[in-house]
Structure to design on (477 residues):
């Protein structure tokens, strides 16, 4: 019989990983994600592999197969990430984002900007069912508006992420919502309705916090916005016609076109918009004066694929309108692949289940059971770096415990999502954390303290369980 790893041995790869990641941040600072963190994850993978093969005689092939499967499961996410880089460059150079910033900084009040940002992202995310799409489109424009208003990028990013993950958590179009319900064996709309018990209070508290912060930090936004509007007007053809691109994107979303197709078609639409309205900008991208067919083709493909920068005459605005294209996502993809290697061997070796099994030993009541489920979702995000894997594993691991104690499956599905979905974006090496930090240009640990919804939700889930509000056993229901 194959020996199971002990919790003490299972903790060693995690401890090694955390130490190396901490050292990477201390030594390399903001550049830790450009190589040091990836090496740290591979060292953690090596430690886990070595322990499994030496102490427990696990065949290498089992570990390798798990790595292949884990990376395969994230392949679609990686392609989406590449397209997010493409759409980021296209929406900027086509004038879509500059136009939104141009009008946004004149309309939105700095004092109410944070709470409005959170609400806007929540609405868009509910309609799209995707936090990634919301942040990559309207989120990019809002981070630009916040910068132009003089607000902290970390605060703005926190508001964007809080709103986006609210929608991702409750939208019937969301893949994580559907996955959590199906993994726990719960009807989708029963799951969504039950999640409102923890999600709505968390969001209301979040909005109050952002409203208060807006009044404290709003005076920081009392800047001369004319410099920004003049710089944008000087560098881009500001036109409401550019907004046809986001309207077209919204139409695709409303028609429930798959995310990959939506992002690609939206990028193409933005490319057409750039060819029609922003030929001067495209010539700046290639450093040419005459907009010949060759130059336009070259500029468009540079916009899609690599970094671009436009000299607006205002340094702060230059950084705002610069983009990375698809190439700007390569560090993130590299990090995802290394994280998936670590998660794959931790699952295949049984070390992950050994660690989470410790939590089940302390389950004595509803509060302990829900808290363990929520914490396990967070722990799985730390280890596997992927919210989908975390949702599936946490639901699978606790399904018997909930059933034996007579709880309805909707409590498990809600607890799994409260623990896994919203916390994934708070972990620097998780797919969500890496993607959002790359898209918004704000480091994960920098925006983390301001993602109030994502921080409050897990604690709200535990609090509701503690007071026993709407916690039913099957016989009670």
């Amino acid at each position: 019989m194959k020996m199971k790893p002990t919790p003490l041995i299972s903790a060693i790869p995690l401890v090694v990983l955390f130490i190396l990641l901490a050292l990477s941040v201390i030594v390399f600072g903001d550049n830790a994600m450009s190589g040091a963190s990836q090496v740290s994850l591979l060292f953690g993978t090596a430690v886990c592999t070595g322990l499994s093969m030496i102490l427990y005689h696990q065949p290498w092939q089992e570990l390798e197969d798990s790595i292949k499967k884990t990376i395969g499961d994230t392949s679609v996410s990686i392609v989406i990430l590449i397209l997010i880089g493409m759409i980021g460059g296209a929406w900027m150079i086509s004038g879509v984002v500059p136009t939104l910033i141009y009008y946004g900084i004149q309309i939105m009040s700095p004092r109410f900007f944070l709470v409005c940002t959170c609400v806007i992202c929540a609405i868009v995310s509910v309609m799209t069912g995707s936090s990634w799409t919301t942040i990559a489109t309207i989120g990019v424009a809002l981070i630009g508006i916040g910068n132009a208003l003089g607000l902290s990028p970390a605060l703005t990013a926190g508001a964007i992420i809080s709103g986006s993950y609210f929608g991702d958590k409750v939208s019937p179009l969301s893949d994580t919502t559907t996955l959590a319900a199906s993994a726990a064996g719960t009807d989708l709309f029963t799951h969504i309705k039950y999640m409102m018990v923890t999600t709505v209070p968390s969001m209301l508290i979040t909005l109050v916090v952002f409203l208060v912060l807006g009044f404290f930090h709003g005076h920081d936004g009392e800047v001369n916005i004319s410099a920004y509007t003049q710089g944008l007007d000087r560098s881009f053809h500001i036109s409401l016609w550019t907004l046809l691109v986001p309207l077209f994107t919204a139409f695709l979303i409303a028609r429930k076109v798959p995310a990959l197709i939506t992002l690609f078609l939206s990028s193409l639409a933005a490319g057409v918009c750039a060819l029609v309205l922003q030929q001067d900008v495209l010539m700046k991208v290639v450093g040419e004066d005459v907009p010949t067919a060759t130059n336009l083709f070259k500029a468009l493909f540079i916009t899609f694929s690599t970094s671009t920068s436009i000299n607006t005459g205002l340094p702060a605005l230059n950084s705002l309108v610069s983009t990375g294209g698809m190439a700007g996502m390569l560090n993130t993809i590299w990090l995802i692949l290394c994280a998936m290697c670590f998660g794959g061997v931790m699952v295949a070796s049984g070390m992950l289940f050994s660690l989470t099994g410790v939590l089940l030993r302390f389950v004595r009541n509803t509060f302990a059971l829900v808290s363990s489920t929520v914490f396990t979702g967070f722990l799985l995000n730390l280890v596997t770096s992927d919210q989908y894997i975390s949702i599936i594993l946490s639901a699978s691991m606790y399904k018997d415990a909930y059933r034996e104690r007579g709880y309805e499956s909707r409590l498990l599905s809600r607890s799994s999502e409260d623990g896994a979905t919203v916390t994934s974006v708070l972990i620097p090496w998780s797919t969500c954390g890496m993607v959002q930090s790359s898209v918004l240009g704000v480091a994960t640990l920098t925006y983390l303290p301001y993602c109030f919804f994502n921080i409050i939700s897990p604690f709200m889930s535990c609090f509701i369980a503690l007071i026993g509000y709407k916690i039913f056993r099957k016989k009670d229901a």
The chain has a mean pLDDT of 85. The two ends are 42 Å apart (CA to CA). Residues 35 and 407 are 45 Å apart (CA to CA).
